[in-house]
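For reproducibility, we list the full input for the zinc ion complex.
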Amino acid sequence: MSIGYETAVVGVGNTKFGKVAGVSAWRHQVEAVQLALADAGLSKADLDGLFTESQFTEPLLLHGHVLGQMLGIKPAYLSTCSIGGATAISLVQQAAMAIHHGLCNVAVCVYGDNPKTGFPALFGKVQMGRGQADSLAFGMAGGPVMEARSAMRYKHDYGVTDEMFGAVPIAFREHASRNPNAQYRDLLSMQDYLGSRMISDPLRMLDCCIGASDGAVAVVVTSEQRSADCRKRPVYIAGFGAANNLDGLSDPTHYTSFAGKRSSSTAYEMAGLGPDDVRVAQWYDCFTSTVLITIEDYGFTGKGEAGPFALEGNLTLRGRLPSNTSGGMLSEANLTGWNALAEGVRQVRGESTSQVDNASVCVVSGHGGFQASHATLLLTEATG
Amino acid sequence: MVDLLTELVMGTTPIVTEETRPFWDATVNEELHVQVCDECGARQLPGGPCCSRCWSMTFHWERASGRGQVFSYTIVRHAFHPAFADDVPYVVADVELDEGPILTTNVTDCPVQAVRIDMEVEVHFAQEVNDPFGSLLRLPLFRPIA
Ligand SMILES: [Zn+2]
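The corresponding predicted structure, in tokenized form, follows.
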């Protein structure tokens, strides 16, 4: 029996995002777990699966062990995962699989951190690219320097203009302007975008996601049967997929098309859905170029056509594919894709501050690990 | 010990490993080498414990021409690591060697705005440095072919 539509997200919780002084990463995580369980109408006693991503400010192995002990739980299934920006979606997939196969019944997936006001996030910022690849020696420090080379090639090969990149943060900021929890809420103009400081050509400041956010997100996953007893209407995990191109930028084909192509086709097949069925999207928006390339990989436009698609306003509520409706990592908060997951659930429930009419199918992407890893989630209002 | 740990956290030189030692040893003599599979002939960088294509564990290292083309690049204008504060703006480029592998490096010896995709470049080598464990190496950098 296919796993599509067999599990559901029944709870979502998030803390305040942004600058939250005096609250540890652990405390953020605990708060999000409690909020998500309460949202689901479930309690500590129901929880028998824990799926975590370690924070960057106090990076440690065995993160899930420490958090689980703090929560005072003895879960059947425990997993801590680290595949960069694809981790959130991957953990939800792992939870769905563990539940589907009877290894646990009620799983919480959680991530939280406080790099804005807590310890400096050394791990992952300074130590990018030392060791095997040694690219740090050449100044390959910081996510924008990595992504910029993909963006440069993408613009070169497909004639993508600055304004096409600019359409992405402008649309997402419009959504963030209605979200009281978003870190940046002032509307942006194309002039604001074009005037923003160049960070690593062709990426400007406004092409890059927020540098640091305090906060946490947790979601509760359970079986389709169990979901009927929860407090709110379930959001079905209709399909999911994953794919990795671990060669990253050593592979000349990987600059302008990512593993999202394989990942999304697996998800579409599992759900029996295609791009035409999708009403709203929450993209992993570390950078504007990543969003445009992912839209193409997922089949919403042809190759090289996502830029004009964005410039025509299709990523706003008035367009074909409203995207990152909470503001995403470009405007709401940088929770490494976890806030996109939370917003995807809210859209299907009808609870977004930028609600799309009839948001019956929402796609959520996760993308990371030096652009190598990709994961896809299709969330639906209806069972299959 | 504290100095070594500080260097490991904050340093930027490559760390020479079993897999990459032949590559870095060659740079001391101002030569660029690539790993070549004895079974299938695939060339790869960085060096690995096996041929990533056919998994053969027998391979040798060959001197490359040192020439290639800029496959893509960026002009870094913000120093994300304090070690590069005095270097911005600088070019990080992915150079596709004539022998095949793509090497992440810097393009030097020209204004940053002169760099282009498909530009023909050739290798040269930076000053000799020690890695944290005392191995000598010279960073391979590239410049436009005049
Ligand atoms: Zn081989």
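Residues 133-207+236-380 of chain A form a domain with the Peroxisomal Thiolase; Chain A, domain 1 fold (CATH 3.40.47.10). Chain A touches chain B at residues 122, 125-127, 130-142, 144-145, 148-153, 156, 197-203, 249-252, 255 (CB under 8 Å). Both points were considered when choosing residues for closer inspection.
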